[in-house]
Structures are given as structure tokens and as C-alpha cells.
Amino acid sequence: MNELLLGKKALTLSKARVLQLAAQGLLQAPRRRARREDLIATIQRMRLLQIDSIHVVARSPYLVLYARLGDYPQAWLEESLESGRIAECWAHEACFVTAADIGLHRSWRAQAESNHWADKHAARARDANLQEMHALLERVRASGPVRASDFERADRGVSGWWEWKPEKRWLEAWFASGELMVTRRERFQRVYDLAERVLAKLDPPINASVSSLSRDTLRKHFILDSVRALGITQARWIADYFRLKPAVDERELAPLVSSGDLLRVEVAGWDSAAYVHRDHAALLDSAREGRLRATHTALLSPFDPLVWDRARVRAMFDFDYTIECYVPAAKRRYGYYVLPILHRGRLIGRLDAKAHRAEGVFEVKALFLEEGVTPTERMLADMAQAIATTAVWHGTPKIRLGRCRPAQVASALRAHWRG
């Protein structure tokens, strides 16, 4: 254990939670209106921003940013992509990362063997249609950026995630292997261009030296970035953040503790050590001394990095969470697109939401507080405010509230909205 931490008392779980929330930018509500640069800083703080196209409410990347930035124009995300401040790549899944990091991700994927579904689909596409794929690549080279929708499909009426038209599969295969990148999005559709042209507009420019970094050096970088982003973590949760293989264990972290890159910490009730990045040493001291105060209430995306690892969120927040949009309807417990409710350092419940944009209605189909959570007046007021401001940001200011558990929550929330 680091000499710095010898003799230190174990962190309580509640102090570990506020440390993680502080690192993730979810400890307190923003104190001023968001600026464009805040969007880049927020992605850099998390190290990535997962992309998902489901939009029963705002698509996940916008919602993740809203939980940290408050009211901001959604167009900033697309504008940052088109101007080269951020880029798309495969990381945890398909993600936005900052221009400063994209070279590291491209170098890692060029060296690392991957069993990810995107790479498997890309390999199958190349095996079956290499000539057609090269023709498509030459079209992009000669004529410029393309969208999948620029190509007619022969089998009209076929739909679904895995029923992409051939050109869409080929574009995604070139994207997965790095020859194409996403230069911008139009109505959230990817617009693909040659990687060399997208890389040329990055701000800041790509650092050419990253292409010569060894696989071990890159792995160390992503391990440290994962710990920094999480604030505090057990070894077993680290690999999931960037989908590293093999899993990270305490033996691999021991040299990083010895070098001072990581601080090894004890958390009361955990049977494994916790790790904190050295950049968060002051934050760790503040947490230990009780100087970090969680005051933020927010609705979280199902793909928010705070909650996407089921084992981690269960251990950190005693919150059992499954993304149920991929679960058959008959087997769902809570709903299709269920948003965890963060309240002052705890995950106190979840709600199933849908934004009816044409009607201007934000529907809360169902809201569930966790077993053992007793709603206080402050909790209800904060929750009502979080739902109302989220609804306004969606452009759906009318709130339609369905069933609640416990039932009396419904009347209390309505009273706050009327008042």
C-alpha cells in the first residue's frame, strides 16, 4: 500500500460514492450556464461518451451530457464532431472521444486482437464482399462523404438492427477497421469519409507519435484512464470501461501503485482493495474528511458510465439495474427505457419515460422508488424539479405521470408541478 495511505482509516461506502460522483461530474448541479468548451471537458472527464440511437427520450449521449451540464443546445455535440473537436470510435462500445484521445484509440485497435461483434461483422463483410467494399471505398475517395441512406436498398420493407442494407454493412466494416471515420452526423445519421480527411481536421491535431506506442504502454494508459474516470474502483471493474482484454487484476495494478500512479485504498465492507488515480489524491482527502457534499438530483441515461456496469453499480450504490430495452416486453420489470434517479449521492429509484415531441408531452409511464427509500419533502421537490427541467429541455414541457411506487409519490409530484 502507498506510504501516503498507511495508517489511514478505511473509507466508508458513502464517501467512496461521493468520490466517484465527483470524478464523473455528478456530485453537484452546474453552477452556471453551460459553454461549448464544457461539452469537450465533460467528455474528456469521462474519457468517452457512449453512443446509442434509441430516442424515446433524448438519445443517450445528449442525456448523459445534460445530467452533467444542465440546459445546453444539443446541436453542440454534432458541431463539435464536424469541427474535429471530438471523433467517433469503438471504445466501450461506439463512443465519442475527444480529438486529443482518438489517436490512442486508433493505435490500440490497430494492435489489439478483438472479439467485438463489430470486428466480427467487418471480417465477414470483407470475406464475402471485398471487391464491392473496395469499390465503395474508391467512391468515397473520389466523390467525398456518404451516408448509408445515399444508397437504395433492393429489399424494401426489411428493417431491424441486423438487417442493414449491404452498403451500410460495408461502411460500418470500413469504420470498424479504421479506413473510414465519421466526419459529421445529419439527423444523427453517420456521414462517412476517409479517415485521413477526418484526421486532418482534428483540433488539436493528432499526435503522430502515438502510432509507435507499444500495446503494453497503451494498455497501461487505458487502465489509468479508466481509474481516473471512475474516481474509485475495484480492479475487477476496470477492464469493462474500455473493454480491455484480458481482465485487469491486482497483480497488474501493483506496479502502478508502486510508481505512485495509483493509490490503493480500503473501503469498509469490501473484500477487495480500491484504487484511486493520483490526479484525484486531493479529492480522496476531501472525501475522507467529509468535505464532498452530494447535492445533485438528475435522471440518468441507461448508458451513463455511472450505471452501465451492473456489478459495479450494485456494489457502489446497492442498485440492481438492467437495461431492459433489449429484454422481451413480457420479461421487463420496470419498462422499456428506464432512467435511474440520482438524488444527493444515492440512486433512489427509476422511471420509465417517453417524450411525445409532437404533442409537447413528457410521459412518465411509471416511477419506482427503491425498497427502503422513504420519500422526504426535499427528495420529492428535487425529483419534481429534475423531471420538470428535463421535460422542458426535451421540448416537451407538459408532464403526464402514470403509476408510482409508492402510490402517494404521484400526488406529491403533481402538487409540486402545480405550485
Automatic annotation (TrEMBL):
<dbReference type="InterPro" id="IPR009351">
    <property type="entry name" value="AlkZ-like"/>
</dbReference>
<protein>
    <recommendedName>
        <fullName>Winged helix-turn-helix domain-containing protein</fullName>
    </recommendedName>
</protein>
<dbReference type="Pfam" id="PF06224">
    <property type="entry name" value="AlkZ-like"/>
</dbReference>
